[in-house]
C-alpha cells in the first residue's frame, strides 16, 4: 500500500494507507496531534521529513517526504506542455517559410542602380606599369633623393 500525497501551493496533504480510525502520525520522530487518516501540513517549507502513520496495534507505514512547494506555482499537465511546444514550432516554421519565399523573389532580379554595369566575362589584366617619377628607395642609393627637401606648409 502507498501513501497519497497532494500538493496545493504550500499545503501538503498526506493520506495514510491504513483505513482504521485512531491513526498516530509522527513527523521526524515527533508525535503529531492528528488522529485522522489525512495529515495536512500548512505552510510547508520544502524541507525533507520522515513521516509515519501507525496504529496502536503495531501496524506502521513510513515515508520520506521531499517535496518542493511554492506560493504562486501552476501545475501543467503533459498535454498543455506538448501543445505549447507544438504551437511554438509551427509559428517558427511559418516565419521561416515566409522569409524564404520573400527572399527567393529578390534573388534573381538584376539591380537597376546607377552604379551597376553589365558584367561580361572576366578577363585578366596585367598589373599597371609603375610610374617612373616615383622610384623606390633602395639601400645605398640615397643620393638620388638627397637633393629633395621637405616643404613647410
From TrEMBL:
Tell me where on the tree of life, at the top rank, the source sits.
Answer: Eukaryota
**A biological process (GO) annotation for this entry?**
positive thymic T cell selection
Q: Which GO terms describe its molecular function?
A: transmembrane signaling receptor activity
Q: Which InterPro entries match?
A: CD3_esu/gsu/dsu, Ig-like_fold, Phos_immunorcpt_sig_ITAM
Q: Does the keyword Signal apply?
A: yes
Q: What is this protein called?
A: T-cell surface glycoprotein CD3 epsilon chain
Q: Where in the cell is it found?
A: Cell membrane
Q: Which PROSITE patterns does its entry note?
A: ITAM_1
Q: How does it sit in the membrane?
A: Single-pass type I membrane protein
Q: Name one GO cellular component term.
A: external side of plasma membrane
Please list where the region (Disordered) is annotated: 108-140
Amino acid at each position: 500500500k502507498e501513501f497519497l500525497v497532494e500538493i496545493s501551493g504550500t499545503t501538503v496533504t498526506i493520506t495514510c494507507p491504513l483505513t482504521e480510525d485512531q491513526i498516530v502520525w509522527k513527523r521526524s520522530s515527533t508525535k503529531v496531534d492528528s488522529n485522522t487518516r489525512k495529515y495536512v501540513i500548512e505552510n510547508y517549507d520544502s524541507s525533507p521529513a520522515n513521516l509515519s502513520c501507525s496504529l496502536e496495534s503495531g501496524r506502521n507505514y513510513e515515508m520520506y517526504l521531499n517535496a518542493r512547494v511554492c506560493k504562486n506555482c501552476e501545475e501543467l499537465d503533459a498535454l498543455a506542455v506538448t501543445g505549447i511546444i507544438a504551437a511554438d514550432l509551427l509559428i517558427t516554421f511559418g516565419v521561416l517559410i515566409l522569409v524564404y519565399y520573400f527572399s527567393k523573389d529578390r534573388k534573381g532580379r538584376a539591380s537597376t542602380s546607377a552604379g551597376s554595369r553589365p558584367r561580361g566575362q572576366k578577363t585578366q589584366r596585367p598589373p599597371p606599369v609603375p610610374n617612373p617619377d616615383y622610384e623606390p628607395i633602395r639601400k645605398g642609393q640615397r643620393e638620388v633623393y638627397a637633393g629633395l627637401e621637405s616643404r613647410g606648409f
